[in-house]
Design goal:
The chain is an alpha/beta fold. About 35% of the residues lie in helices and about 25% in strands. Strand 1 and strand 2 form a beta hairpin.
């Protein structure tokens, strides 16, 4: 496993792991309140090692091994960190892999650096979840209280959302119009995803400008897509995208 290093981005100490190797560089973008040590990130790192590829993964500020307060995090801030890391730590073509919220950030990265993104993989990608992922009552509570705590399906601590994060996400919505990504896109989505409805994957598929978009719906799959056969589907998808440049 690669060592954890740190880089300063506008005064924030961002933790990352960078594997040296050939291009395209795999870039893993975590989901909301997740970190770079999860099952999918580790599996991608093993693939990168096996294929001799470069790989970058990192923790957004306020999460994992990075500095800062989670309460200060916004979608715009975490995108800013992602842009800084790929600009300063990588060269050449990129293959972006975004999990849940990371898929939303990956789409924005592809719009900001179209000349570098060779392909994009969204795993239960959640673009615009500040819009469709909250009820009117929850949005009102965020506006009124400035924060919202919800039950966390993955741990005992409640899941925190802030008004600043929600407002940032609302400004960065993509699905209301064409998503001008030209690169090949592969979407993996669980049939039974209770957090990101399958309809979001179909909306994204239809919104993307790219003519090379495929959606793989995994029967019985939930949101995390971390079961062995689901990880296999992800790795097979990436292997297929790598073939032309192998």
């Amino acid at each position: 496993m690669t060592n954890i290093d740190h880089i300063e981005v506008h005064g924030r100490r961002i933790a990352y792991r960078l594997r040296a190797g050939n291009v395209p560089t795999l870039v893993f973008l975590c989901g909301y309140a997740s970190d770079m040590e999860g099952t999918k990130a580790a599996a991608l790192d093993e693939l990168a090692e096996r294929r001799g590829l470069s790989m970058l993964r990192f923790d957004y500020s306020g999460t994992g091994s990075s500095g800062g307060r989670f309460d200060d995090g916004t979608l715009a801030r975490w995108l800013e960190e992602a842009v800084a890391l790929i600009d300063r730590l990588t060269e050449g073509p990129l293959l972006l892999v975004g999990s849940s919220m990371g898929g939303w950030i990956a789409l924005h990265l592809a719009l900001l650096r179209p000349e570098r993104v060779a392909a994009l993989v969204g795993v239960a990608a959640a673009p615009d979840f500040t819009e469709w992922g909250f009820t009117d009552e929850q949005k009102a509570a965020l506006e009124r209280e400035g924060r919202l705590e919800e039950p966390n399906p993955y741990g005992p601590a409640p899941q925190l959302f802030t008004r600043a994060f929600w407002e940032s996400g609302q400004r960065m919505r993509l699905l209301d119009g064409e998503v001008a990504v030209e690169a090949p896109v592969r979407l993996l989505h669980g049939e039974l995803d209770a957090e990101v409805p399958l309809d979001i994957a179909f909306r994204l598929l239809r919104s993307l400008r790219s003519a090379d978009v495929q959606l793989n719906v995994i029967k019985g799959g939930g949101h995390r897509l971390s079961e062995p056969h689901e990880i296999h589907a992800l790795l097979s998808t990436i292997e297929a995208l790598l073939e032309p440049s192998a």
